[in-house]
Fold this sequence. Notes:
82% of the residues lie in helices and 0% in strands. The chain is mainly α. Helix 1 (4-25) packs across helix 3 (36-62).
Amino acid sequence: xxxxxxxxxxxxxxxxxxxxxxxxxxxxxxxxxxxxxxxxxxxxxxxxxxxxxxxxxxxxxxxxxx
Length: 66
């Protein structure tokens, strides 16, 4: 099972992607139309999905199911 530090690391990486890539390409994002708390929530949800998917993969791999 994923640790809190794994979730946090993934969320922080996603937040960097949001702020450096998406925010510069989506009109209005940099102008503050997307609140910081929404960015944090988006990063958190994406991290949860990514880490949960990794957990499922690890579990299947441990059972010999690829």
